[in-house]
Amino acid sequence: MSHDLSRLGWDDLFASSYRPFDRSDAAPARVLRADRGVCTVFGESGVSRATLAGAVLLAAANDPVDLPCAGDWVVTRRWPDRRVTIESVLPRRTALIRRTSDKDATGQLLAANMDTVAVVEPIHPEPDSARVERLLALAWESGAKPLLVLSKCDTSRDPDAVVRQLAELAPGLPVVAVSTRRSAGIDHLRTYVTGGRTLALLGRSGAGKSTLVNALTGTAVMPVQAIRDADGKGRHTTAYRNLVPLPGGGAVLDTPGIRGVGLLDTAGGLDRAFADVAELAAHCRFGDCGHGAEPGCAVTAAVENGSLAPRRLASWRKLHHEVEVESARKQSRAVAAAGQRRRRT
Ligand SMILES: Nc1nc2c(ncn2[C@@H]2O[C@H](COP(=O)(O)OP(=O)(O)OP(=O)(O)O)[C@@H](O)[C@H]2O)c(=O)[nH]1
Ligand SMILES: [Zn+2]
To answer: Which Gene3D superfamilies does the entry link to (predicted)?
Structure first.
């Protein structure tokens, strides 16, 4: 049986980046799941397991972000003994990357080629504004369109009030309230996967991501675990990331439950996640205004007249500082690496 890959988002642009690799034993496929060294891929002939070719391993030795990840479009090759290998990863249009640890220069790739990233925050226990802002910055950074999803709305007496409150953290973005218990908001979420588009779910462990995947597919494909009710913490974490093709076309991508999210060294996502602050800052008298005691600061003026929440400015400052530190770190690492190369030659 031949599957129509356009239902999974394959289009002319991906086809043209595939063309140089085209040969009789090659075929395009999308990575559903990436484990160490082996990927589950979906191609025209259906699902198969594929190992990584030398060229892919070599590229990844320099930067692990080059390893295939759920959502990637790849070039597969079928060998005479029926083995399948991944020969190349086609250029990604979007990528969700988080900083792995304070020491680490590289990031961890969570998902690729999604059109929309839904930051999923549960309404119970109380939503964590700082986490939502952080995840939204990461979502913006990916290049895909962010969306805020408030999950488990059946547990709140007044979800609309929480939606209004959280909308302030997501200026200009849609906020969707969902409940899988009541099948509320699921059809709205489904509008993000029409036309073969991919929706990635990003959120803490226990936010209800796997349950949403199941609601969208109408079957149980992701394991959902019991949860400790008192603190709402999930007892398990989805250990792998999974791209799940949906029966009506499109796909949903579950990412592992995220505990700490480090931002990489790019401020672009942050400025977009804090579009309200960035917009105000454009009106400060000085271009390099630190929004402290400077005269003519539009940001502090907005806090004083009540149009910008002080909390909002504080979290913007905190994340900006983090990005600056990371950026400086990256620069000194680059200098050190260049020094090492010079000594070696
Ligand atoms: N009341 C209520 N509970 C829900 C809802 N959706 C999910 N849950 C519960 O929340 C718990 C966690 O759900 P999961 O879907 O496993 O959460 P997850 O985000 O996938 O968690 P990780 O896999 O750890 O990242 C489970 O006990 C679900 O039954 C909902 O709409 N309402
Ligand atoms: Zn200012």
So the answer is: P-loop containing nucleotide triphosphate hydrolases (3.40.50.300), Probable gtpase engc, domain 3 (1.10.40.50)
Q: What is the pTM of this model?
A: 0.86
Q: For residue 26, report the phi and psi dihedrals to the nearest 5 degrees.
A: -105, 155
User: Which amino acid is residue 211, in one-letter code?
Assistant: T
The ipTM estimated for the assembled molecules is 0.96
Q: For the domain bounded by 274-344, which CATH number is listed?
A: 1.10.40.50
5-89 belongs to CATH 2.60.40.10: no
Question: Residue 232 C-alpha to ligand 2 middle, in angstroms?
Answer: 39
Residue 261 DSSP label:
-
What's the burial of 210, exposed, middle or buried (CB within 10 Å: 0-12/13-18/19+)? buried
Pocket residues: Cβ below 6 A from ligand 1: 151-152, 154-155, 179-181, 203, 205-211, 224-227, 234, 236-238, 256-257
Q: Which of 131, 188, 210 to mutate to test the pocket of ligand 1 (most atoms within 8 A of CB)?
A: 210
Name the segment(s) of the chain with CATH classification 1.10.40.50: 274-344
pLDDT digits (tens, 9 = 90+) for 105-143: 567 889 999 999 999 999 988 899 989 999 999 999 999
Domain with CATH 2.40.50.140 in the chain: 5-89
Distance, CA of 172 to CA of 174 (rounded, Å) = 7
Q: Whose CA is nearest to atom 4 of ligand 1?
A: 152
Asked if 201 contacts 254 with a C-beta cutoff of 8 angstroms, the reply is yes
